[in-house]
Specification:
Structural class: alpha+beta
Helix content: 10-25%
Radius of gyration: 24 Å
Number of domains: 3
Number of helices: 7
Bound molecules: zinc ion
Amino acid sequence: MGTSVRLEIRNNMQTANLILGGLEGKRFPVDISVSQSCLEIQSPDGCEKHPLPQEVQLFPSTCRYLQHVSGEGLHVRLKAHVDYKADTTPTVKQILKREEKYTFYCQSCGAVLIQQQQFARVLPLPSENWSSLVEEWCCHPDPFANRRCFPKVNDCFLGDTFFLVNKANLSDPPGETNEMSAVPHPVDANVSKSKENTKVVCKRCKAMLGESVSSDTIKYYFTEVMIQPSCHAYTMISRNQFVESLIVQLLLEFSHQKSTFRFCVQGQNSKHYLLLWLLNADTVLVESTSTGRSNSYFFSGNATSGSSQTLVAQNVARLLYMQCIDKSHTEFVNKWINETGAHSLTFPSSTCLELILLLSLNNAALPHSLRSMNDWQVAYLKM
Ligand SMILES: [Zn+2]
């Protein structure tokens, strides 16, 4: 059995945490040598070489921690240099502002929602705190209270996790159902009537895409719609890969814009699903493709050859999460939401559950000692 390599590098601090697993399966003595560009494991079974990716260099002389953790392998801490920057994918907001025609698809099945569209105006909606700000700063009542912003034809208004378009821009106005009202709803004064209005589902696969917010306005969630240049052929991305990259994008965007690293994920029914805490986004993860995250295939859809021992580097965001659907941490959750300034992110409930599953599988694929911090679970999301 081959050795598994997991090298986690904090780019800003230039420190690395190396875990060599699978050593137990070897006949002893096992001789491990670490050089600047290669890891070598010598045993009576043979010699294994793991050349590091070009962008990564280790400094073996700086090793200041060495411990064998039973069931996981050898943990080594040392200095590293990494010169790796993944191409950043443009955000939905950046894409929509480009002068190019885009086609909008249902992410789940590829059905076309909006054909060859270039919006005349792409504008951000006022933030959720806008009205309370106005109330604090103005000596007169908020003149915009009870007035909602709806897009005209060829307008696109951007919210935190959704965009609004005029129904006239849709290639085939989506079917509306009253399924929402069939789902029992806790009576909650905060849930306005508008939240209970009809949801918009994909005509082909019935995935929930958004809501109809007025007679001629549709709200689509970023997590449910794929936007691609009309001049390119449609390319399918696995659902998990899409959700993973989109969530990371949103977390990074908000942490830059609003300097908040704490988030609360809630469903469109205002139910809380997850607390997220973005720890850092400067981590580069180097793993052996055949033995690394056992669920990588599930997330990325990239089938990798079982015999390959190539080490691959990728930028990841490291975050803590706590699911709160089972109400086991109610007091803590309330405190987190009300007192820490956590930013709320709203998605369809089914997507919130997908996100919990994605994080849980990601967490389960980590070495045991890295899986939790206090009451929080740890996950690494690919950028
Ligand atoms: Zn669909």
